[in-house]
Amino acid sequence: MRVSSPRPGPTAAQRWADALSEWAIPEAILAQAEEPPWVLPPALFAADEREIAARAETAATRVARLALGEGGSILDVGCGGGRASLPLQQFARSVTGVDESQEMLANFQAAWGRTPVPHREVLGQWPGQAEELPPSDVVLCHHVVYNVAQIGPFLAALTEHARRLVVVTLPDRHPTSPFNFLWEHFWGLTRPQGPRAELFLEVVGELGIRPQLESELRPHHRGEEVSRPAYLAFARRRLCLPQSREAEVDLALGDSWPLEVPLLHTVSWPGRA
Ligand SMILES: C[S@@+](CC[C@H](N)C(=O)[O-])C[C@H]1O[C@@H](n2cnc3c(N)ncnc32)[C@H](O)[C@@H]1O
What we know:
34% of the residues lie in helices and 18% in strands. It is of the alpha/beta class. The chain has a 7-stranded mixed sheet.
């Protein structure tokens, strides 16, 4: 008699991709949008002195600093304006930033240009052509993974590029989920909640990695990084609403801005380069 074994369920990586695909904006809403909703304003991710000082005290900076020891090279993947790497400038012998956005990279270049540390900028998607980069001592990847559907190869490439440590930071829930009440308000649309950091840890485990985890509340910056008008324009674009409705977004948003998930996780593991 043949005994059929139970069909294996989807992998954690597959569940991660499936959960992210649920964030797709319904076609009818997208079709009427005047501007693309997903563009991140570079100013929101620029690294000013206050931001660098606040991040200097985070778990992510602490674990990376330990791995850098007397000094070492840093690769900052999805670097934005350099908020992940700049707090480590005293311990950096060199730094490379990779980002798919030219505007973000320009901010990274300008910020590291104000330090004596040799820096390099690489425009491209990770993993991809950027993967041909040489290994670095420490690889940072902060606030990027919820953007990555093919998470397995992305994380494997981080691991293969780190001689000492990979440091990933992510919020507890999808970073767009604090906007959910606005989608309900303007479009009567219930948005997803997942995936969550818990599933990310499962994905990492699936790759045979036993990471270290540190969790903490996000450093508090109530709207200091960006002006209210710039934030309203960002929120309005994200909600696929026309400029003529910005005053309504202003009312609905009230005092609850910037919309951010407060709990952050730093997940780190040894590199294999
Ligand atoms: C939310 S921002 C975070 C920026 C920065 N790491 C920080 O902590 O402030 C995400 C950044 O990752 C970039 N990005 C997202 N997916 C990427 C990919 N697959 N390859 C390269 N850059 C990516 C975006 O262009 C953006 O600059």
